[in-house]
TrEMBL record:
<feature type="signal peptide">
    <location>
        <begin position="1"/>
        <end position="21"/>
    </location>
</feature>
<dbReference type="InterPro" id="IPR028994">
    <property type="entry name" value="Integrin_alpha_N"/>
</dbReference>
<dbReference type="Pfam" id="PF13517">
    <property type="entry name" value="FG-GAP_3"/>
</dbReference>
<keyword id="KW-0732">Signal</keyword>
<dbReference type="InterPro" id="IPR013517">
    <property type="entry name" value="FG-GAP"/>
</dbReference>
<feature type="region of interest" description="Disordered">
    <location>
        <begin position="426"/>
        <end position="467"/>
    </location>
</feature>
<feature type="compositionally biased region" description="Polar residues">
    <location>
        <begin position="453"/>
        <end position="463"/>
    </location>
</feature>
<protein>
    <submittedName>
        <fullName>Inherit from NOG: fg-gap repeat protein</fullName>
    </submittedName>
</protein>
Length: 491
């Protein structure tokens, strides 16, 4: 009987391993979310209609022509249709650098407000705006409200800021509960040109005043030198949200440790950062601790958290992170950007469903959405995007697989790509269309079919005769196992 169990288990393993699946994305099976050229801010909004109880996922897009777009999904399944609706901002050249979604998750309300950080426009009247009632069962028409205006900075209404700032812009904003009081707070990076000619940068926190229903802002750090970016995560695992801030003009990366009440102590993670641009926080090495990934022009740098954080957040906390190491560089692949060469966005997400977080990113001038799969070959191409900017990951059709929404600047479109689960091959890979190849000055030697497939990142096509032979051998082995099981059972 023991022999029977062993043989049966062996046959079961063979059958299970042959049925392994991976998620793939086909660039030729894309749909349109909205018609926008340079959409840097894209967010998937996951909501449930209180009237019908139906869950749906809409997409918010920050356009570059004085508006944001709410693309509402009006169908489900593989044939998704979006109905885009433009919501105007103050100025026809206003551009949303980032969007923060504020959802009322109470059982009696499904309203959605959106906060937009505005930059790249010296004529705009505001750096931070809120669009109230953009979505919801009881929503009528969206209402635009100024949160931080240029005049507020000139009048020094925000603590510790200079009264002589001009052309105030905001490069990033997040909506989270920093003090655990059940109300949403805002954290934003603000920049402005000083009348003296220098550029200043501030990190501000806005808390909701319940009496006036207005956000009151205070500056918690100044000296970022202009444009900056912020990410929010519980870095030390104490139950409250901490901040990571990168300042490209200063080559500076800072950590802000929350004491639980929304008060912060700052430490320097890297004062001479090789990369200090867009960021993402996640467990990149799968060791149970959060790491930080920062984008440079053509490379990614990771700060791995190696030891458990300590209670001494002033002197020891930053030491829990190792020195930054480059985890990917386009130069290592003998490739080059065609233009721009800037990491536009980074997200850390388990894309292939293996339980380990992966790193997805776009670079302007590299015509694809890239991913570093944990424990697999460095850098795969998920989908082709012509001059990519922002992107977002989520489950659009509610099938449990990660879908992609990404901006293709040269196509003037924001596309979606649905994840498809297929049986894994001997060498699992993703299936994008081939990106445009850079021109070469001299003709390269002709490659074999195998070499061409490997260098282009396309799936290696197996010989049909070989595949049939493998399938025959596998079937014969399974039959042998069953026969052996029966023989041992009779004995």
């Amino acid at each position: 009987m023991l022999a029977l169990l062993r043989v049966t288990f062996f046959a079961s393993v063979l059958l299970t391993s042959s049925a392994a699946a991976v998620v793939v994305y086909d660039s030729d099976k894309r749909g349109v979310v909205a018609s926008e050229q340079f959409a840097r801010a894209i967010e998937i909004v996951d909501l449930r209609d209180l009237t019908t109880g139906v869950q749906y996922n809409d997409v918010l897009v920050g356009g570059s022509s004085g508006h944001i777009v709410l693309s509402e999904r009006d169908s489900i399944g593989q044939n998704i249709l979006f109905q885009p609706k433009r919501i105007p901002l103050y100025h026809p050249r206003s551009e949303a650098a980032s969007l923060a979604v504020m959802q009322d998750t109470s059982s009696s309300n499904d309203k959605v407000d959106v906060v937009a950080s505005l930059d790249r426009n010296e004529d705009d009247v505001a750096a931070l705006v809120m669009i109230r009632d953009i979505k919801g069962s009881n929503a009528t028409s969206p209402v635009l409200e100024t949160l931080i205006a240029r005049e507020e900075f000139r009048d020094s209404n925000i603590n510790n800021t200079d009264a002589h700032l001009m052309s105030v812009t905001s490069s990033d904003v997040k909506a989270v509960d920093l003090d655990d009081d059940g109300e949403v707070d805002l954290v934003a990076c603000i920049a402005g040109n000083h009348t003296s000619g220098s550029e200043e940068g501030f990190l501000v926190v806005g808390r909701l005043d319940l009496e006036s229903s207005k956000f009151v802002f205070e500056t918690i750090y100044e000296g970022l030198g202009g444009t900056a970016f912020v990410e929010v995560a519980d870095l030390d695992g104490d139950g409250d949200l901490d901040l990571v801030v990168s300042a490209p003009e200063r080559n500076l990366i800072l950590l802000f440790w929350n004491d639980g009440s929304g008060s912060f102590t700052s430490t320097v993670l890297d004062a001479t950062a090789k990369a200090a641009g867009k960021m993402a926080v996640g467990d990149v090495d799968n060791d149970g601790r959060l790491d930080i990934v920062v984008g440079g022009e053509t490379f990614l740098v990771a700060y791995f958290q190696e030891v458990e954080p300590t209670a001494d957040k002033v002197s020891k906390q930053a030491a829990s992170f190792a020195e930054g190491v480059t985890i990917w560089d386009i130069k290592d692949e003998s490739r080059r950007c065609t233009s721009g060469c800037e990491v536009n966005k980074i997200l850390i997400e388990d894309i292939d469903g293996d339980g380990s977080p992966d790193v997805a990113f776009t670079i302007e001038g590299v015509f694809e959405l890239n991913v570093l799969f944990q424990g697999k070959t460095p850098r795969e191409s998920l989908v082709s995007l012509d001059s990519p900017y922002g992107f977002s990951l989520g489950d659009l059709n509610l099938d449990g697989l990660v879908d992609i929404v990404g901006s293709a600047g040269n196509d003037y479109k924001v596309f979606y790509f649905l994840g498809e689960e297929v049986e894994a091959t001997e060498q699992p890979t993703f299936m994008p269309s081939s990106p445009p190849a850079p021109q070469q000055e001299t003709a390269a030697p002709k490659k074999t079919d195998l070499e061409s497939n490997e260098s282009s990142g396309q799936p290696i096509q197996q010989d049909s005769t070989s595949s049939a032979t493998t399938a025959t051998l596998h079937s014969a082995l399974v039959v042998w196992c069953i026969a052996a099981s029966t023989m041992f059972a009779l004995k």
